[in-house]
Amino acid sequence: MKEKPSEGVRLDKWLWAARFYKTRALAREMIEGGKVHYNGQRSKPSKLVELNATLTLRQGNDERTVIVKNITEQRRPATEASTLYEETAESVEKREKMAQARKLNA
């Protein structure tokens, strides 16, 4: 995997490479719409991603908090893309509770 930890990569490009969004345009739209926070703050698509940064992403009804573990600007298979980040335990627990609540209300 091509890594550029010293230079960093644009936030919209990293989100696309990590397979959170299908296109860079969609990633850019989500960032500009306030659905993505970088280290707890709204950001711009051109923000350079750094290792160990915390990203909070809103996707539909789900909200994820992930920590950046690797940086790449190339989109890879899903199995490799999952090595770019680590979801926090609190985020996983919260998503599971929300999913269960949606099932009960359905």
Automatic annotation (TrEMBL):
The keyword Coiled coil does not apply. Keywords: DNA-binding, RNA-binding, Stress response. Residues 76-106 are annotated as: Disordered. Residues 9-72 form the RNA-binding S4 domain. The keyword DNA repair does not apply. One of its GO terms (molecular function) is DNA binding. Monomer. Involved in the recycling of free 50S ribosomal subunits that still carry a nascent chain. Binds RNA more specifically than DNA. Binds with very high affinity to the free 50S ribosomal subunit. Does not bind it when it is part of the 70S ribosome. Belongs to the HSP15 family. This is Heat shock protein 15. It comes from Leclercia adecarboxylata. The gene is hslR.
